[in-house]
Specification:
Elements (H helix, E strand, L loop, with lengths): L2 H55 L10 E4 L5 H10 L3 E5 L2 E9 L2 E5 L7 E2 L1 E2 L8 E7 L3 E9 L2 E5 L5 E6 L5 E6 L5 E5 L3 E5 L7 E3 L13 E3 H9 L9 H35 L6 H22 L1 H15 L1 H9 L2 E3 L18 E5 L2 E9 L2 E5 L7 E2 L7 E7 L2 E6 L4 E5 L5 E3 L8 E4 L5 E5 L2 E5 L14 E3 H10 L8 H25 L4 H5 L2
Parallel strand pairs: 6-10
Antiparallel strand pairs: 1-28, 2-3, 3-4, 4-5, 7-8, 8-9, 9-10, 11-12, 12-13, 13-14, 15-16, 17-18, 18-19, 19-20, 21-22, 22-23, 23-24, 25-26, 26-27
Length: 525
Amino acid sequence: MTTEAAQACVLPQAGMFSKRRRARSAAHVWTVHRVHKWAGLLAALWLAVLGLTGFFLDHRDWRWMSQPVMPAAWLAAPVAEKSLSGAISLYQVNPQNALARLAGGLRGLWASADGGRKWAPVRFEGLGVQPQVLAIVPDPGLRWQRLWLATDDGVWLSADGGHRFARYALAGQRVTALTPSGQAGMLGVTDRSRVFRLATEGSQPVAWLDLQPLAPHLLPANVDLSRFVHDLHFGRGVFSGAASLLLNDLAAIALVLLPLTGLLYWAMPKRWKRRRRSGRETPAHVRVRSIRWLYRLHGPLAGVAALVPIVYLALTGILIDHGKELGPWMRAVPLVRDWLPPVYSMSGWQGEIYAVAGYPGAADTLSIGTRAGLFTSTDGGRTWSREAGVNGFVWMMRRADDSLFIGGMGSPSYVKRDGGTWQRLQQAGHMPSDASVLPGGGWLVKTRHGARMTGASGKMPAPMPPSPDATWFDIIDGLHSGLLIHGQWKWMNDLFSVAAVLLVLTGIPRVWRRGKPSLGRRTKR
């Protein structure tokens, strides 16, 4: 057979295989397109709800989120129960007079003089609404004769046992922690980032401390999967400071923008077709420009920019929804710290100081509570050592004389007397938000599920202030979790999370292949 004859036999076969490949490719593209379209149409509304509510939940520190809106009894039972249990996060008892109590949190502060049977709102001079109260601290010298508050509007002082407070320092700044110092005065933290000394007398009350970062060898080698999942989902798992939260905000905005632009991209050509049939045809340049901008907003802008955070928020949301079942497994899975995002290197303190404690008689000694554990400095923050007896996330500390209580987030709670060793508390409950020393010894520990006693004999009732109203946060949180709709809505959230990941996976090849919209096909007559 001649060369020409051989080529004549081969070329048609090669062309045939090429056509088959093109046909298979076209079928694949068509399938991806259909999956993307129907997943988007079915999940669009709820994905937008998750994005919008998630954005506000990321900023629960905004004061309006804590303002009462409606009676909690109007809400679904799980949401109402969660609202009532979370209304009070702080609870302090006067060790010299157990009838005198203060209770509060993000909704404000209440005082009782009869053991909690009756409560009255505390007065804040010069404020029309109560601030968010983040810590209640008796004076180290005068005890309950002088009380200090850390709030979202600076430090406040009471000289009448907590019935009236006057502004003291740092107006307009969010003071996230406050504690007695090793010398006359207090130690505090603003925005979980900067530590200051607060003088209780004099005209210059605030002095800022220059803390040096932790040496890398002090950090634990591993981080458990549960901690990493929660950090990612709640906006603190990628970069330090506000950068991680901005990624979450980007994903939340994209989850609102993508359904909107996707629905318009699907619906507008249909509307134009109906208008043409009725004799009111939309000009071609309007159609082309509209489709072009919708495509750019939907794919190359919102879709590509928020691709990574959308995926990790969807996947971590599924794991958190099933924390009760998956929690033990996630806590048992170690992740190597060196392989995790930059925030876990702890190269600075921005957004990492959850609690602070001073030590009586030791002016330069302080301890810092972080997600990586507890660290102590004896030279004013120049060098640090790790407290070997404390494991996990330390997010709350309370001092009473020579005793220090530590509350963990997803980790144990501990107590230690100065000069002693750390003792793990089995009865402290999950995520203590406050602890008050009791008149007979021991601690009254406040958790989301109420107050309980540890290390003391007998019982002390801890009645809470009445809080019949739900806040914007309660409503938004109930909508985000689906508890406003049904107690088992988490399974629907799982499906929508899978849909979000599927939309990302099917959207990438569409953007990659097309580069720009097929204007002629989308706008043809």
